[in-house]
Each structure stands twice: as C-alpha cells, then as structure tokens.
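(Protein data)
===
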Amino acid sequence: MVGRKRGFDRDDVLDQVTRAFWRNGFQATSVADLTGTTGVNPPSLYAAFGDKRTLFAEAVSRYQATYGAFTKRALEEEPTARHAVERILNEAAIEYTTPERPKGCLILSSPELHDLRDQARQAFEAKIRHDVATGALPAGADAHRLALFVAATVRGMSSLARDGATREELRDVARTALSAWPAPVP
C-alpha cells in the first residue's frame, strides 16, 4: 500500500513553526498556536515532526542554519576576532530588525537554549584566545572577559530589537561596543 501524500510543504511549515517559536518562545507557543499558524491539524503535525519538544529542536536547527547562521559564518570566515565581532554586531543589527521577521534572536530569547548560548560564547572565546596566542591581540587581553562582553552585547541587541529598537540604534550599540575592543598589536 502506497502512503498518502502529505498535504503540505514540510519546509514551509517548519519555517512557519520556527517563526512562531521565535516570536513567542517555546513555553508560550502551544500546539494550537502551531496548528493555527500552519493550518496543519495536530495528527499531521505530530506525524511529520513528532512532539512539541522535537518540533522545537528542529525549528532551532533550522534557525541556526538560516536566520542565525551569520554568527558562525563570521567566526569561520573572518581572520581575527575583532573582524568577526564587528561583522557579527553589524549583521545582528540587520538580522534582528528585518521587517518581515520576528525581532531579535530565537536562540538568545529562549530560556531553554542556555547550552547553545554557552557554545556561542565559547566560540567567541576560542577566536579571541587564538588572536592572543598569535599576537593579534595584546598578551594581557582577557579572552573570557571579552567573550562575555560580546555575548552580553549580542544578547542585549536582541532584547532591544524585541523591544522595538531600530536598526540604526542597534548599529550605535555595535559601534559603542567595538570602541571598547582592545587595540590590535601593531
């Protein structure tokens, strides 16, 4: 017996679900909200994605691979921590205020995602430590403290965007944060 064809585009539904969790968070988003947003009935939603927690995990993965991928790209592509942080903060100002999307960052606004936030901070710290080790930053630069500063700045920018801050206001935050960055070693 051939299985019945699904009556919806899985990727489109996953994007709608991702945006719903992004907008409201895991706890505040009910299955009824998800079915109302997507137009997919609960049995079909469960059959395609599993329970709410599994669906949230898949939505988070999708967010990381699409809307939130700019952070990982900057850390991988930029030659120094300073360049990566500058790019991340400037792109965050754009990404967190794009009109047709929920504001801010799904990862930063979801209490359940502490481990992912800590992994991001560790990635910042590793990039900074590399710069200290190679002499791009002064030997006395505190990689842990700088990584916490970057993480707090990005998280603050996400919160400000969710509260209605404009793109230009977030760019001002980015410029101010970068002014506190240690001078590179000549």
The domain at 10-65 is CATH 1.10.10.60 (Arc Repressor Mutant, subunit A). The chain has ten helices and no strands.
